[in-house]
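S2.1 Query sequence (TetR family transcriptional regulator)
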Amino acid sequence: MLVALNELAPYDAAVGDTYRELLSGVSTGLTRVITDGQADGSIRAQLPAATTADTLTWMVERTCQQNLPNRPGSYDAELADVLTEIVWSTLYFTGDFGALGCGERD
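Output structure tokens follow.
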């Protein structure tokens, strides 16, 4: 459904507004999850909640838009697993970024 909304958005202002509102709602909800998780110590405190939520929301949206229309249905579960791992790692990873080859983090 999101693919269809995205395709119609440039041609219909109301559809475009609805699409942006849906994604804004997802980002707002994720911001709350991050803020609550930071408050209880389960999510990394150094992440700016709103920026992280916006980035993850639009990363998932763009990935789905670019991949799902051109892949078989069997790809959906694999993509969901990969996106889940990326989001989880972003929010909860507390290991050594240097060991991942990512360099030092401030």
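The mean pLDDT is 88. The chain is about 70% helix and 0% strand.
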